[in-house]
């Protein structure tokens, strides 16, 4: 081949990338469009797998109505931080646990991050990648730490998870997305949602809050592990083992609305995993620790009130602060009505013990009703909460889970409704400041 022919060939290989539609996605307007990632479905609607009539599958996940958030505990070799499980993926299983895979060959995207398949730096610098182009760098940074391939090829692993499972999600079919959505926006929505769900399911913290930490000598029974996880999270996951070593966990959900921004409702695992009933090992990882993916870091000092007892003891009065998932500083707290705001937080009266407590404010008793928190004079029966120690902090839990969420982050005079669980877009934990 002549030099000229070679040069022409190289140029034509590079050109489609430069002229690709992603180039235009760098404009701020398009980036914003990507980031918002909203469907037009709302967060209500029929719960997947429970419909009695046919539904619009853009807003009703079908046939994959069971959404499985799957995590790894990789020790041979180790991947990710030593104090966190890592992401395997989000799988849309049918309601009977059969599943489809590789549902759309035309959407097996191969440019999820910034990995370049050509050795040329020139090509690499113009090859704009889906998540980077979408401005989803927070998600990408998180994936780089917590979504790890054992062979070291994270990009290929992400492509595989998207191509095998993400393309089977009915609510992520491109024609379901709002008009004007950029090309491949549905894959960005997929990765954003997987990361958000994972952040609300801190398996390592759930286990350690119940006294179960990695050990090279101890063994556990399956019921020890599942009951600890149920107690900490409120739900029973599926646990998978390889040669008696715990190495995968599956957290099950059903969904109202779209994978993009619908309400994920946790359910108990409809089937057991592969772990034996006894003699299960949970060995330590080698590597470095990280800020836990969810909840406040243990080194954070919180609250304006001085401690009233040893760390973790239950005070009778306290403000309640909000720590967003992955953040080590607080963002406001709870007001008298049980809403989240950055205005001056209310003083809560706490009655009972860490294993069973009730909350009230100057407005009245607090309850969880229809999945959201309210305090007021109309509340006749206060709901039962518990308090869970995490590092040096005491977190409020409902149904054993310290995960709460809302539809937005408040500022100014805006108040956000607090929902139990991680089904809404902003996940956080509630910290007892005076503990
Ligand atoms: C539930 O909705 C899906 C999607 O529209 C449909 O295929 C299925 O038949 C529905 N189930 C019932 C019982 O109507």
Task: Tell me what the structure shows.
This protein folds into 2 domains: 13-290, Ribonuclease Rh, Chain A, CATH 3.90.730.10; 317-432, Trefoil (Acidic Fibroblast Growth Factor, subunit A) (Trefoil). The chain has 9 helices and 18 strands. It has helices at residues 3-18, 28-36, 121-126, 130-133, 137-146, 154-164, 185-199, 203-209, 222-233; strands spanning 66-72, 86-93, 238-242, 245-256, 263-267, 317-318, 320-324, 330-334, 340-341, 348-353, 356-361, 364-369, 372-376, 386-390, 393-397, 404-406, 419-420, 426-432. Strands 9-8-7-18-16-17 form a 6-stranded antiparallel β-sheet, with no helix packed on it. α8 (203-209) crosses α9 (222-233). It starts with a helix and ends with a strand.
